[in-house]
Structures are given as structure tokens and as C-alpha cells.
Amino acid sequence: MTAATVDNTGAATMAATMMDPSSVGTGTSDTASIDTTGPNSYNDVSSKTTVDTTVDNTNDIAVTNENTQSASSGKAECPITQLGGSATSGDASNTSSTTTTLMVSN
Predict the structure, then answer these.
(1) How far apart are CA 47 and CA 57, in angstroms?
(2) d(CA 44, CA 102)
């Protein structure tokens, strides 16, 4: 049995979130306030968020299943006193089974 699982769904979700500026800061406070200021005071609140994201997702999956078989029943022998038609050598058989499962989530 051959099995392989590749799950890159987290990377795609992260990339989508990072490309959406409205999602930046989710779960944190995005507010600012200034209080207790007096006359002629200068008040300034600024915020800057920069997000650079690169996601490179390459899935190279290869499966090779080679099954070489041979069978031999042995040499047929017949006593001299019998005709060759009564000679037997036994059974020969082969069996093979394979299961391949590949799961890729992007």
C-alpha cells in the first residue's frame, strides 16, 4: 500500500488573510485616543501596517508501482513404465495487490 497526504490549506488561508487589509489587526485593538489636552496643544495619532507575503506552493507527486512476477512449476518427470501423458509437475500461480491513495489539499 502506498499513501501520501499533502495539506497546504493553512498556507492558502494565511495568504488570503494577509492580502486583505481589513483583516490586519483582527483580534487586537485598532483604536487610539488622546485625552487631557489643553489649549493650543498639538495632537497627532498615526498608525501604519505593512504586510508583505509570499506563498509558493508546488506539489510534485509521483507514484511508480512495478510488479515483476514469475512462477515455475518444476520439472515434469514420468517413470519409464508410464507414458508421458501421465506426468505432472504441480501448480504455479501468482497473486498481486496494490492500493495507492494520494490526497492533496491546497
Answers:
(1) 32
(2) 57
What does the block give as the cell for 45? 495619532
Q: Where are the beta strands (DSSP E) in 1-106?
A: 2-7, 100-105
> Diameter of the chain by CA atoms?
130
Q: What is the C-alpha separation between 35 and 29, in angstroms, rounded?
A: 17
Cβ-contact 1, 98 below 8 angstroms: yes
Share of the chain above pLDDT 70, in %: 70
Run of H or E residues at 16: helix 9-19
For 25-55, the pLDDT digits (tens) are 554 556 778 888 888 888 888 877 787 878 7
Distance CA 15, CA 41 (A): 42
55 residue type, one letter: V
pTM (2 d.p.): 0.39
**For the chain, percent of residues with pLDDT exceeding 90:** 0
Residue 21, helix vs strand vs coil: helix
